[in-house]
Amino acid sequence: MPNLIxxxxxxxxxxxxxxxxxxxxxxxxxxxxxRRGEGYERRFxxxxxxxxxxxxxxxxxxxxxxxxxxLFATAVGASGxxxxxxxxxxxxxxxxxxxxxxxxxxxxxxxxxxxxxxDGDAWLSVGRxxxxxxxxxxxxxxxxxVKVRTVRGDSLLASGHxxxxxxxxxxxxxxxxxxxxxxxxxDLPSLRAVCVEVHFGILNDRGKPHEPTRVSRLLxxxxxxVKWVDRSHFVARR
Length: 238
Description:
Helix content is 36%, strand content 21%. By secondary structure, the protein is α/β, with parallel strands linked by helices. The protein has one domain (38-237): Vaccinia Virus protein VP39 (Rossmann fold, 3-Layer(aba) Sandwich). The strands form two sheets. Strands 3-2-1-8-9-11-10 form a seven-stranded mixed β-sheet, with helices on both faces. Strands 4-7-5-6 form a four-stranded mixed β-sheet. Helix 5 (89-101) links the parallel strand 2 (81-85) and strand 3 (107-111). The radius of gyration is 17 Å and the shape is globular.
């Protein structure tokens, strides 16, 4: 099993400028505005927040630099917990920075792994930038990749991680693999909602054009009702 951490030293960046804490925070703000511009994912964000109750444990799968993790921490309150799963070392360093700078009452944990359907190792493409939201698992070692650990959600549950009430998944075309590794998690009576961003273009490029239908049926088989909130996002509830 990989080393699971709640905080730790930041990974060394590629230049002195990037290592400067103030410049790192500015970069995070620019990145966040670029991806989460006015109206971006608004309905998805609202739908997710309606699923979360004070005291919940939320798994943020594909946390990137922590935009949603912070929203979830506010929603669960002091009695709740947010676990951020993120394989990118640079994103993990930024998550740690944000956790220190913006401490909330909620319990927070950072787990530096990619959730998938196997426990092992994989390559993460970082060609879009070390903390880019579009970074995703690669089929093999390529230029501009970093080696990361993959873990099944069921393995984390078996090792003692707190069971989630809500799971959010945004993993750039590997949402099927994440759910395939969560059979026991999906059977948990305490799990009320699974919120997923579906990357149709990436799935087509991977030769998996029917994956959204398969994933929807998988969740329905676990007694969830799937509702699309826009063209790229759905929320499965029960």
